[in-house]
Hints:
2 strands; 36% helix
Amino acid sequence: xxxxxxxxxxxxxxxxxxxxxxxxxxxxxxxxxxxxxxxxxxxxxxxxxxxxxxxxxxxxxxxxxxxxxxxx
Length: 72
């Protein structure tokens, strides 16, 4: 009876732009740049925990927004 609409789709960290990484994932500019460089060099993430390996990214920011992020 109470239709609330669809939930927002999670942000795919493997294809997200730096702007989306900053606004949706809450990464700092230097962190989003570090992730974009890392995925270009080593490939996409399979799980969010893969981002723990990325130097320069504070994983706590990713962990806080886990419900809005995905590695698809």
